[in-house]
# Entry
Amino acid sequence: MSADYLLCRTELRQHENKSVYDLHLNDAAVKMLAEEIFNPRLFSELITHEKFKRFMTDLEIYVDGFNDKGLQIANAFLDVMRCKLEELGADSSDAFVQIFDTSHIETEQYYMNILSEDLKPIVSDLRTAHMKDSDTASDVDYQSMVKSIIDDFTSQMRIATDDNTESTNDSYINGLILLFCKNLEMKVTQLSVQEKETLRNIFSRSKPAKEHRKLTRRNPKL
# Structure
């Protein structure tokens, strides 16, 4: 067991120094790993997943074209059978002719389907394993959250019970402040009087506030 592992500097129990050359990584790959451009832990979990080896095998088969000839032979067989049917008098509306036409294997789509199916269980397992992480999006009832925001906003608008345009505009600004606080997951009561006034001045210059003022001038009952 390495000293780095005991000191929590690494997650490796056994650490054997290897040169970059021995790992067969190119410069771009080394740079990405060294600079942690992506999540290194997630990357480790991805490549050590029990089904990742199958994905890499299928990827290598696709990239190197190991099975391309097999697919070409299969398609050639379908073409020959279709020609034989035509020689026997079958036309394009014949059921067997249509079967041979639609059974052709498109190489790109064939491999994309295989690689996609290889990855599905891997990413599903990774997602499930991290669902309870503190930095993972939690299950939120967004419908209730949006309803609460709208209710709070409209309740502010109802405060202006008279037809006074200025009062209606003030209530609209208060509604915008509520939306702002809701979005930041904080309470309006946490704001000082000066902070609220600053936000009112800022939001009063916003496009929604300007549009609302135009509407209230046209229809004071809004």
Confidence is low (pLDDT under 50) at residues 5-9, 159-163. The CA atoms of residues 15 and 160 lie 69 Å apart. DSSP finds twelve helices and no strands in the chain. The radius of gyration is 32 Å.
